[in-house]
Amino acid sequence: MLLMTSRDTGRWIIPRGNIKPGVTPCRAAEQEAYEEAGVRGTIIGSNPHGMYTYSKKLASGEARAATVEVCLLVKQRVKKWPERRGRQLSWVSTQEGGQGQAWIDAVLRQLMEFEHDLTNPPLESLPESRPRGRA
Length: 135
What we know:
This protein is α+β, with helices and mostly antiparallel strands. It has helices at about 25-35, 100-120, and strands at about 1-5, 10-15, 40, 50-55, 65-70, 75, 90. It is built from two helices and seven strands.
């Protein structure tokens, strides 16, 4: 999972942003990943592969709960992107842990389950085969 530091607090976060009217969540995620972390790609699948909720501080100073859906991208790093100054990036494997932040550990656990499902697909029951013969 790609982590980056926030510009205001320096905490480890993932690329995220608000969904603007007329923009699909997948397209918004692709755009934010490029702008904030210099990663290009496309969303794999239509369902999020993890999610978490945090307290978002609004410009008014009020705090409100916000839910982040984590989508997987086919990754390609670019050398230059809009917010490259003022952010640090770090790739974290599902086995490494969450830099002391519970939400990262929770998302990594969800991604581990997703990885497990990808590498261990359920066995489908095969139809019974019956010998064909004349009655």
